[in-house]
Structure formats: structure tokens, C-alpha cells
Design goal:
Elements lengths: L1 H15 L6 E3 L5 H9 L5 E3 L8 H4 L3 H7 L4 E7 L3 E2 L1 E4 L27 E5 L1 E6 H11 L10 E3 L23 H7 L5 E7 L4 E5 L3 E9 L1 E7 L9 E11 L6 E5 L5 E5 L10 H7 L1 H4 L5 E6 L3 E4 L4 E7 L6 E9 L4 H11 L11 H7 L4
Parallel strand pairs: 1-2, 4-10, 6-13
Antiparallel strand pairs: 2-17, 3-7, 3-8, 5-6, 9-19, 10-18, 11-17, 11-19, 12-16, 12-18, 13-14, 13-15
Helix pairs in contact: 2-6
Protein name: JmjC domain-containing protein
Family: Belongs to the JARID1 histone demethylase family.
Pfam family, one: Cupin_8
């Protein structure tokens, strides 16, 4: 369908105009400017000088301050062998024996073709005192010389800032005033993220209007609009989770029982040199289509990430080896945009961008 491929470029023209970059604002917009210029057209932007008044910008760079304020707080720490949680991980075929197939009503058979070798994997989650968690974020760090063979990331979500980290409430705003007025509500959830340069988040989308404020370090985003849904090769994968043994220092992978399937983006935008040719062959719509938008959000800046935009996130630590961010999730409006997205996703799509594998050619003929 050449019409869908034309849509990819048309949406970029609407979102970016004559620029190839995410628009930057040097000061916070008025609620009306934000609503008209960005929320209504579903257009991302980066806002500078919006959180200069936060005490967090100064105090959170001091880790002894965080240790003191959160000394009696228990938090959820997420552990993975490589910094990739909520991601696709290879799974031996024998581990899938006995797993029930996904329901036929959710996705076509082609969309589960790779489920026999990959699974959607969540991190091992451990509750512990915050001072211990922060120490593990630094000492784990993916350093091969360390005795700890994991990457630790405080990424609980689920409104964790207003629960696990409530002692820090006075250090930043409870909501983003101009966004709350424009959207007509306060955030449904406020989350805190503390990690290092080894943590990253695979391509996914959220049904929230996302205001993402970076406090220390930098966040590096790849962005694709909802209209590029076919380029993400969304397929259903069996759900699993890591289990970490403190005794052996090893991870095991455990499938959920009863079997649950998760629709997830199949594309890894940063394949290794050894797998690059294979990845490009499997996912030509992504690698041969329009480039994703790239942006870096620095300390003191806010990214407005519109609902249903696909995003992949990597991060760079500050000089102390840490990246901290707060994000605000506002409920999206389930309006005509949502209906259009569901309609587009339902279309069977045959691409003019062909892969080199006969198996992938078959899969490419019925992408949802």
C-alpha cells in the first residue's frame, strides 16, 4: 500500500514542518499554546527553563542528600543482566513446551511467528532500603570487573514518586501547571527513574500524554509517530521474568504460568554488527523507511511525548554516574485520533519495501 507509506511522510511534515528536529521551546508555553500547538496535533516538543525553580536540580546531584532524605524509605529495584527490562529475550524452544498459543482473536498467525524463539521479559524486582538500592545502581553498573553481574535501575512506575519516593515531594512540582490546565486534569501517575548509562528501554508506546523531566544526566530518545505502527512489527510474545540469585550471582528466565502473551515491538534499532544484516532483513519497513526522530533531553529540560508515539530510550549519566528523571502521565483523550490509530493498525499491509528472506516476505504480507 503506497498510501500508507505516503502517510509516514505526510505525518512527519505535519509534526516537523520544514525541520527534521523536534521543536524546542526556550520557555514554557501558555496552556492554550501547548494545547493548540502540540497536544491537538499530537506533536512532540522539548521545553527549556520549565523546571529551573525545582530544588531537585541542585539537591539531587548530591547523593548523600538522597541517602539522607530517603534513609527510611523502602523502594523497588529492577535487576537485569544487561540493562534491558521489558524487552525481547531469546528463549529456547523447549522452554515453551506446554505454553498455550495466543488467542486467535488478538493477532494473525503471522504476528506470532517469532514467539518460538523470543519472549517478553520483565526485570527481577527486589524491595530494599533506598541507600542500598542507590549503592547497587552504582556498583552493579554492568562492570565486568564487579562481582555483581547485573544492571540495577529504579524504574517501578505505578505512581512510585508519590508512594515510594514521597519524601522527595517538596523538591519538584506535583504536576506541570501549564500542561494540567491545557489537558484539563492532573497527572494520573508521577514516576521517578534512577539509573546509569547501561539501562535502556525498548520501543513501545503509552496511552498517556507524557511530560518527561530530566533532572541529572541526559536521555536519548528515538521517536516514531503512531502512523508508523506497521514499521514496529508488533507481535505477541510469551511473558516471562528474570529471577536473580544473590547466592550464585546468576539470572534464570521463567515463563509466566498460566501463559500470557504480550504484544510488543519487534524492532531493535541498535543491532550489533553481528546481527545487523539479519535484523535489517527481518524488519525492512523500519530500517528502509523514514528515519526516526532523534532528540536528547538534557538536565533541566522537559520532553512532551504525545500519547501513542513509539519511543526507544537510552541514557547518559552525569559526572557522578547517575541519571535521574521524573515523568508525569496524564490520561489521553480516547477521541477520534484513537479511533484512527485502531483503524490503521487493523489494516493488512503489503509493503513495497521487501526483505531478502522468503519467510520474512510471507510475514511482511500481513503486518498489523
Amino acid at each position: 500500500m503506497k498510501e500508507i507509506e505516503a502517510l509516514w511522510n505526510e505525518v512527519r511534515d505535519l509534526s516537523l514542518g520544514n525541520s527534521s528536529r523536534v521543536e524546542r521551546l526556550e520557555s514554557p508555553p501558555t496552556p492554550l499554546e501547548f494545547l493548540r500547538g502540540f497536544v491537538s496535533p499530537n506533536k512532540p516538543c522539548i521545553i527549556s527553563n520549565a523546571i529551573n525553580h525545582w530544588p531537585a536540580l541542585c539537591s539531587w546531584t548530591n547523593h548523600s542528600y538522597l541517602m539522607h532524605v530517603l534513609s527510611s524509605s523502602s523502594v523497588s529495584l529492577h535487576l537485569t543482566p544487561n540493562g534491558r527490562a521489558d524487552a525481547l529475550v531469546p528463549l529456547d524452544n523447549h522452554e515453551l513446551q506446554g505454553a498455550s498459543p495466543p488467542s486467535a482473536s488478538s493477532f494473525s498467525p503471522e504476528t506470532t511467528a517469532s514467539s518460538s524463539s523470543l519472549c517478553f521479559t520483565s526485570a527481577h524486582v527486589e524491595r530494599m532500603p533506598f541507600p542500598e538500592a542507590l549503592s547497587l545502581i552504582f556498583s552493579g553498573g554492568g562492570d565486568c570487573s564487579s562481582n555483581q553481574r547485573f544492571v540495577a535501575y529504579a524504574q517501578q512506575q505505578n505512581d512510585c514518586f508519590r508512594s515510594e519516593y514521597s519524601a522527595l515531594a517538596d523538591d519538584c512540582d506535583p504536576h506541570v501547571p501549564w500542561a494540567s490546565e491545557a489537558l484539563g486534569c492532573i497527572p494520573e501517575a508521577v514516576n521517578l527513574w534512577i539509573g546509569n548509562q547501561h539501562s535502556q528501554t525498548s520501543f513501545h508506546k503509552d496511552h498517556y500524554e507524557n511530560l518527561y523531566a530530566v533532572v541529572t544526566g541526559e536521555k536519548h530518545f528515538l521517536l516514531l509517530p503512531p502512523s508508523d505502527v506497521h514499521r514496529m512489527y508488533i507481535r505477541e510474545y510469551p511473558a516471562s521474568h528474570y529471577r536473580y540469585s544473590w547466592d550464585t550471582g546468576e539470572f534464570t528466565l521463567e515463563l509466566e504460568k498460566p501463559t500470557r502473551y504480550v504484544p510488543w515491538c519487534s524492532v531493535n534499532p541498535y543491532p550489533s554488527p553481528e546481527t545487523k544484516d539479519d535484523e535489517m532483513s527481518k524488519f525492512p519497513l523500519y530500517f528502509n523507511g523514514p528515519e526516526p526522530l532523534q532528540c536528547t533531553v538534557k538536565a533541566g529540560e522537559i520532553l512532551y511525548l504525545p500519547s501513542m508515539w513509539f519511543h526507544h530510550v537510552r541514557q547518559s549519566s552525569d559526572e557522578r554516574g547517575c541519571t535521574i528523571a521524573v515523568n508525569y502521565w496524564y490520561d489521553m483523550q480516547f477521541d477520534i485520533k484513537y479511533a484512527y490509530f485502531n483503524f490503521l493498525q487493523s489494516l493488512h499491509y503489503r509493503s513495497a519495501l521487501k526483505s531478502t528472506s522468503s519467510e520474512d516476505l510471507h510475514e511482511d504480507s500481513d503486518i498489523f
